[in-house]
User: Fold these one by one.
Assistant:
Number 1:
Amino acid sequence: MHRFILALAALALAGILSAAPAGPAFARTVRLGIVTTPGSAQHVCATAFQDLAAQRSGGAVEVKIFHSGTLGSETDILRQVQMGAVDMAIVTLGPLDTFVPEAAVVGFPFLFASPGQADAVLDGPLGAEILTAAERAGFKGLAFSENGFRNLTNAVRPVHTVDDARGLKIRVMESALDRELWQALGANPTPMAWPVYSELQQGTIDGQENPLSVIWLYRLHEVQPYLSLTGHVYSAHIGLAGLNWWNTLPAAEQTLLTGALRDAAVAQRAWNRAAEADFLARLRQAGMTVDEHPDLESFKARTRDLRDLPAYANPRVRALLDRFLEATRPTQGDAR
Ligand code: EAX
């Protein structure tokens, strides 16, 4: 009997060892799409994922990153993942709301008071509901990494209060919510795929909004003199896979990829936050006029009834929004 148990233990150990990096049982190339260039927040997460997946599979999993618009816009990338032409993607949550209306919940203005609160909610059961909702559109939602809090830039005038943004032609993501939001704020939103440097340069649009890392990386300071640290929306990235493709993977590979992507996301968020002050300093040095303390109350006053926007009209989405608002409610009365 003893010997039998020992033999079983030895077998189990051998099993563990054979799953260890020394002896990969499978080889796979995973095609992953992002719209942005090397150095971007998406790319930092993608390369961390690539490294972890290779390490943990003993080199069996090779993640191939398609970046810099080679697959088209984020909307195009999502379509390709849905159809199985690309296996995985890391995209901004904004464009996902066309496919998965629940995604619009995260883009509610002034929802999260801090990055830590965003992590707690998105890594918890509420975030998991968005990942699950993505399955209805043919995506396996896996992890949230981040773009960061979005800030407004423009070429016309300094924006201190919401009224200063009135009538500005602002490029927004291809997202129903963002168009509705900027309309409600009194601007003139124009949905466009990223990037938009030449449109800004030519004056087709007056402004845009993005985290500081994006503004710096895409050299928007060259064509946008004014930056207001509005931080109006927390912009999450989502790492996802095509559901049909995902379902063909053995459970062990699914676990490996999920763990690698989640750990990559945690590392990427830390990187992104540590880098932000540096990006602000660079943008200032490059000559941007920065309003560090715009009148956010004026923006918030306009955003109170945003729960009634069409982007939240679906009762399922509205109910989820209310739970997100409840989970992030400021302790001192409801500032929203
Ligand atoms: O990730 O489209 C956007 O504004 C995104 O934030 C951009 O692709 C950078």
Number 2:
Amino acid sequence: MKKVYVKSYGCQMNVYDAERMSDVLAPEGYAQTDRPEEADLVILNTCHIREKAAEKVYSELGRVRQTKQERAQAGRETKVVVAGCVAQAEGAEILKRAQVVDAVVGPQSYQRLREILRAAERRRVVDTEFPVADKFDELPALDARRVRGRGVTAFLTVQEGCDKFCSFCVVPYTRGAEVSRPVAKVLAEARTLAEAGVREITVIGQNVNAYHGEGPDGRTWGLARLLRALAEIAGVARLRYTTSHPRDMDEELIAAHRDLPSLMPYLHLPVQAGSDRILAAMNRKHTGDAYRRIIERVRAARPDIALSSDFIVGFPGESDADFEETMRLVADVGFASAFSFKYSPRPGTPAADETAQVPEPVKAERLARLQALLEEQRQAFNRDTVGRTVEVLIEKSGRHPGQLAGKSPYLQAVVVENAGLSVGDVVPVTIVRAGSNSLFGGTNASRAGAPPTQPDVSANASAGEAALAVQ
Ligand code: SAH
Ligand code: SF4
Ligand code: F3S
């Protein structure tokens, strides 16, 4: 049996694509492996968002070349494919820079992977077309047997591409124009996931709340309506969505947070910066105060919602005063978690041509200050959970015997002491301690659906602490 090793970088969209690539290859007899040295086919599913992310590909290709040589000495052939956003952005350039690569396949072309591999037997191939046909129509239908084994949480792409053209961002160029999948297709895929035992679906898209898919009634459905339909599917205990844009955060979606118990109280809503001048230069088309007002409305609908965001420091022209506006926005809003980055000029994007680039040491200092504040907020949010009972979806076994690992509604990692639980259960857990990256708690409930029992906090507290003293 042939083996394929797929390594994904970047966002959740790439995780989804990587799974679908292995689905495409399964009928060719490829089994998945997590050991590159035993792979007949290596696929690097790449990310182009920042320079560092893009450069990682070339260091990884160096390692792949080594493995390919070793395998060749043992008489075994290895094919190497670069997929994803670097493939789209750099195309044939990759073949020039890395001799080891046999094929370059863009994010809108991987449904043709089998044909591409056949062609690569004869010559090196570049396929970075944006096809007219819908990629999703050409992909094999999701197979419940293959989904099983991928765990109880799954990503489901409902929207792809971006028409927003933020001045720093490569996504509109690497992923193409915004496209929404029809509602019926999304629901069919969600049902297959549920049948395969998936308990939590995260609906994904580069701008997922710009979703405007064709409904079964012939009308255009927005994300809120799609979420309402997904919430009806038996077995799906939890729904999440990511990534959303402030401009598409409409009243219907906010109302869904109020009305749908399975829609988790967690919102990742990137703001990027706090200064209106910088937001305008970024072409975000919203102000800092507009963002604050959205957050107020979301919190009114769902008071316990946890917020998360993305930030860029050192965008061209960002002054000290502009940066202080970002710090002020973070202080005003309060985030449960966040991602923050130094601005990285990307070829082909308007901001890369700006002359007023911020010096590296200034970027580094701003990032350190911002991250310190965000980390303080994250820790405070986690500490606030201690003493509370939260529902945890058990995702896998923990590091120590008798432990299980799962997530709270607020996407916090939770280690649970209870040997009687199974993966896929959703149980109330009383949090007894907040570590630096995980919460710890215990439960007496044994199965999902069982009436919540009164957790024995003291007994579980000692068990949790003892087992994890060396965390
Ligand atoms: N579609 C999402 C984000 C996609 S990229 C949105 O609109 O928010 C994920 C994050 O990477 C962005 O939110 C941004 O914070 C960061 N990012 C994108 N381009 C970047 C660049 N050139 N330099 C630094 N960070 C960048
Ligand atoms: Fe990039 Fe902006 Fe589109 Fe997000 S909205 S993917 S940051 S261009
Ligand atoms: Fe990276 Fe492409 Fe996602 S650039 S963040 S993998 S859309």
